[in-house]
Specification:
- The protein is of the alpha+beta class and 624 residues long.
- The protein has a domain of 66 residues: 2-Layer Sandwich (Alpha-Beta Plaits), CATH 3.30.70.
- 24% of the residues lie in helices and 22% in strands.
- It is built from 17 helices and 33 strands.
- Strands 7, 8, 9, 11, 13, 16, 17 and 20 form an eight-stranded mixed β-sheet that branches. Strands 3-4-2-5 form a four-stranded antiparallel β-sheet. A four-stranded antiparallel β-sheet has the order 10-6-12-15.
- α7 runs parallel beside α15.
């Protein structure tokens, strides 16, 4: 088992892993013992700037199950318009800022945060390997690998169900359920974002002879409208949609949720109500795919630390945007300039006022997201304001297509890939889906892990492995059991569009990287539901090492974290040399926590305490 000092890893990440200086096990304990800032940063700012009387809607997370006592408490604090969520044990409440802060101080309250506003943030099937996966899948009889029977819930601005992209092979509408959570009483798509996203995941390709087919073209689509006619929603609307998924997931076989929207990740994922809801869904067996964000460039420099919420949630599959440069070949693919980079900058605050950052390596992978052509909703606001985004494919409203860019477009590609994997192997857990997507991804030369995660999505490779994973594994499977039905491990490479590349052969595990063929040849306990992939990595006493009760001996942890163009870090690398790989300056330290500052020659770390207005949740459609 390879291992090295945590301090070496942190310096090697060259000011990007904004670490508090405590071992992770100590930090988790410290949070439980020391945290007293149970009111979110935005509420504290409002209170400090004299807005204490302002009425706001907040999300209240109790420490105990919600009951009549809490209802009475809310009334005592002047709260009204209480909305409860059946599966998550939280409520949306309207009350004054001062009352919200005072409420947070109670022993029976865990956290109070603003009900933030939410706005929408080539030949895709060929270059991602989806076409190859469809042709080579081992399906029986008349079955096709196209997502049939798998439900993908799309949380977005609605779907134009009159568009021909959403018909089944039998000409039936594949949007099998629609719900509005915006209060506008409609489930179509006057904004235009959701239709484009849904078709990237599951468009049928009937237009232009499959030129713009989605990744899982016969999957069922569940339309959950959380963004209004102007592309804006709230934390509460997203929570309500996730709550609906939890209740109805079996009815519609919802195995995948796509969330191409987000907000500034201020609260730690431990406190963020949407992150906590995502975790509940993943623990229940639902794959949740989120967009990384679109804040990776400030016009001059690369910007680090702007992964959106809920993309900062460890259990989610967080997807950044790559640029195929308009070619099918993957030889020239790069990470887009605007794709949000890690590390995650959400934090919790201890009783001394010190911020403790989550510091996770995100995104988990990247997928094509630049100038993608997909379904255009009739008379939508985006194209009305930017007519140049119409792709000129058809004058028929039911067949119109449009351009959009951003990780909002990348996320549904991963969601569609997950649907194909689950069709070929319905027993896969969300953690196995995530593992196989990362393990088979293509590392892009010149980009570090805070930009691309494990690499660019390889649908063909992920489906190939999904098809080989045993379907008789249960929750009682032992560590080290054979994971594959075949004794021989497949060649770790793929050839797509005439270009052959090696797989990453590793996975992101929160703070570091795990690699080794055992990740796909032997069952790891971290693949079970109710766990995180990072559970097998223990950080303590300054050492990162694999926990052999969770990971087999053949898994290497704390090794080969990419920190700059073409460079890896591993055992025995001198601290000074590793630091210089990423920047030409010393580590920036502020009271033991790496803080905001310029990284010479590479980019800028921002987001330390940055609060945008009332915490607007922004999506990431880039009008490029």
């Amino acid at each position: 088992m390879k291992r090295f000092l945590l301090s070496s890893l942190l310096v090697a990440l060259s000011t990007l892993v904004l670490y508090s200086g405590l071992p992770r096990t100590t930090r988790v304990h410290a949070q439980a013992e020391e945290q007293n800032e149970k009111a979110s940063a935005e509420l504290k700012v409002k209170e400090a700037t004299g807005a204490g009387d302002q009425l706001v809607q907040v999300i209240v997370q109790p420490k105990v199950p919600w009951d009549n006592t809490l209802d009475t408490t809310i009334q005592t604090f002047g709260g009204n318009d209480v909305k409860q969520f059946q599966n998550f044990g939280v409520s949306a409440v309207t009350l004054s800022v001062d009352a919200a802060v005072s409420l947070a101080a109670r022993d029976d309250i865990a956290y109070v945060s603003l009900n933030r506003s939410v706005t929408a943030l080539g030949h895709v099937s060929y270059t991602t390997g989806a076409d190859l996966a469809t042709r080579t899948a081992n399906m029986e009889g008349d079955e096709r690998l196209d997502g049939t029977g798998i439900g993908i819930a799309v949380l977005d601005s609605g779907i134009d169900t009159t568009h021909r992209s959403f018909l089944s092979r039998g000409n039936l509408l594949r949007v099998v359920a629609s719900q509005d959570f915006t209060g506008e009483g409609r489930t179509d798509d006057p904004y235009g974002h959701g239709t484009h996203v849904a078709a990237l995941a599951a468009g049928n390709g009937r237009i232009s002879n499959r030129l713009y087919v989605g990744i899982a073209p016969n999957a069922d689509i569940i339309n959950l409208r959380v963004l209004n006619s102007e592309g804006v929603g709230t934390t509460a609307s997203v929570l309500a949609a996730l709550d609906w998924v939890m209740t109805n997931r079996s009815t519609f076989n919802i195995r995948v949720v796509n969330v191409s929207l987000g907000m500034a990740a201020v609260d730690s994922y431990r406190n963020d109500p949407i992150c906590r809801a995502v975790r509940r869904l993943v623990d229940a067996g639902v794959v949740v795919v989120t967009a990384a964000g679109n804040n990776g460039f400030d016009g001059t420099n690369k910007v680090y630390g702007h992964i959106h919420s809920p993309g900062n949630e460890p259990s989610a599959i967080t997807v950044g945007a790559s640029n195929t440069r308009g070619t099918d070949s993957r030889a020239d693919d790069v990470v887009t300039s605007y794709s949000s980079r890690g590390p995650t900058r959400s934090y919790w605050t201890d009783n001394a006022g010190t911020r403790h950052y989550d510091n996770l390596i995100k995104p988990d992978l990247v997928a094509p997201g630049n100038r993608l052509i997909s379904a255009e909703a009739h008379d939508n606001l985006i194209v009305t304001q930017h007519p140049e985004l119409d792709a000129g494919v058809s004058g028929n409203d039911a067949r119109s297509m449009m351009y959009l860019s951003g990780s909002s477009m990348s996320a549904p590609i991963a969601a569609g890939a997950a649907a194909l994997m689950l069709q070929t192997n319905p027993t896969l857990t969300p953690n196995l889906v995530k593992t196989l997507l990362m393990y088979t991804s293509q590392p892009l030369a010149g980009f570090n892990m805070f930009e691309q995660g494990a690499g660019e999505i390889n649908v063909a490779g992920a489906v190939q492995l999904a098809n080989l994973v045993r379907q008789d594994l249960t929750a009682s499977a032992a560590l080290g059991d054979s994971l594959l039905i075949a004794a021989e491990i497949p060649e770790p490479s793929s050839s797509i569009a005439g270009y052959t590349f090696n797989w990453s052969r590793g996975i992101i595990t929160n703070f570091t990287y795990a690699s080794g063929s055992d990740l796909i040849s032997r069952y790891q306990l971290i693949y079970g539901t109710g766990r995180l992939l990072s559970d097998g990595v223990i950080t303590g006493d300054g050492v990162i090492t694999g926990d052999r009760s969770m990971l087999s001996d053949g898994v290497i942890t704390g090794d080969q974290v990419t920190v700059s163009a073409g460079h890896m870090i591993g055992d025995g690398v001198p601290l000074l040399s590793v630091s210089s790989l990423f920047c030409n300056t010393n580590v920036l330290i502020e009271g033991g926590v790496l803080g905001d500052g310029v990284i010479t020659g590479d980019g800028v770390i921002t987001g330390d305490g940055v609060i945008t207005g009332d915490g607007v949740i922004t999506g990431d459609a880039a009008l490029l």
